[in-house]
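Chapter summary example.
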Amino acid sequence: MQTTLNATRVIAGTGLHPGLPVRMTLRPAQADTGVLFRRTDLPAGTGDIPVHPSSWVAAPLCTLIRNAHGARVSTVEHLLAALHGCGVHNALVEIDGPEVPILDGSAAPFVSHILAAGLRVQHAPLRALRVLKPVEVTQGAARARLLPAESLEISFEIEFDDAAIGRQRKTLDMGNGAFLRELSDCRTFCRRADVEAMQRSGLALGGTLDNAVVFDAGTVLTPGGLRRADEPVRHKMLDAMGDLYVLGLPLLARYEGLRAGHAMTGQLLQALLATPGASEVVTCDAAMRARMPGVGISRRDLPLSA
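The structure predicted for these 306 residues follows.
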């Protein structure tokens, strides 16, 4: 069975890269819709962008989708991670600008709105994409790959010169409420020098210490410090959770990322779909559905920091 929202929620905030106010409305959608973005600031008939591999566009700093009319929405990864982690299969996302609001830099505010809206079961078969053989992409020391697995697993490793980050690794089975409990409150992170360079180039104009963890020479500048000792690697896993949902279907696979980012995960999905015999669409039975993200979640699964 599929799931949609039970009510409408309005979310207002500011985009990270344009730094402009954005109003976004999450609405229920019919079974088999998937996640559909609708740009309400564009002419009727031109602003619908389905979350699907064919809509994905390579971008260095975020996940970006675009339709045939050129309409685009960027920084969709945290919202997609929240929808994925809450087990929402169908939703209409109305938005009046080109970028999803950054809020606090994590997925927790989106999760709170989804839980407040509630979930409604739809009596339609739930389909998933099952990985049948390994697929991998590499770029220098970075690597991303998908391996066969009975449920969605995410394993990530990062390594930064900054002493406050260093080398971190973590692996989680994303079934049930693991996303909410373990990843949802983990914020995007960057170095102070990177933020300043991006802002000089007209990027990250909405970036502040309130919507990102900022590191500078081994120090955490963001008030309150880290929410978790390994918050950076957990945020990378959160990003992967959102990026993988660009498939438009739940995934039965193990994802492994080594210094990987949004663009590499997108390239991995393209490689998966282009590799004969690497995957198949399956109709989920009760045992499969029980292992999916979002099963049995409640507000109690949200961390205290959310």
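To summarize the output: DSSP finds seven helices and 21 strands in the chain.
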